Amino acid sequence: MIYFSPRNIPALRSYSALERIHIVSNAAKLMPFGRKAVANVLKLILLIALFWSVLYVQGIALKLITLLAIGLLYPLVLQPITISLAVPYIPDAVREFERSQAYAKNEPGSDAEDEESPE
Fold first, then answer.
1. Would 77 be classed as within a structural domain?
2. Which residue ranges run through the membrane (predicted)?
3. How many domains does the chain have?
4. What's the pLDDT tens digit per position in 62-82?
5. Taking the mean position of all CA atoms in its chain, how far away is CA 34?
6. Residues in the chain with pLDDT < 50?
7. Residue from 85, 98, 94, 101 nearest 28 by CA
8. Rounded CA separation 35/21 (Å)
9. Burial class (CB within 10 angstroms; exposed 0-12, middle 13-18, buried 19+) of 66
10. Helix 90-105 crosses helix 17-30 at what angle (to 10 degrees)?
11. pTM for the complete prediction?
């Protein structure tokens, strides 16, 4: 299944938007080399096709507008590739995220030391 947004992934529905992005990026880092290579080649093919299409746009003003549109929209085109290929690694990334959150809550020097009563 192709996921166009991290909010569509059932395992990530209980997290905030920033947490979902963090988890998906961690899942992408957990992908093996072959899977990362496939993702990067697919992204490269899409980018080449997008920029190749600029060659056929007539006029410099329209080319600039087209380049601006491609620059603004390319994350929307490339993000589904990364998300869809990283989905099998989401559970591991969620465990890693939960572990880092638990560590951050128990870290020395946090709120426990700030609540000392002055005497």
1. yes
2. 37-58, 64-90
3. 1
4. 999 989 998 898 888 888 999
5. 19
6. 112-117
7. 85
8. 19
9. middle
10. 120
11. 0.71
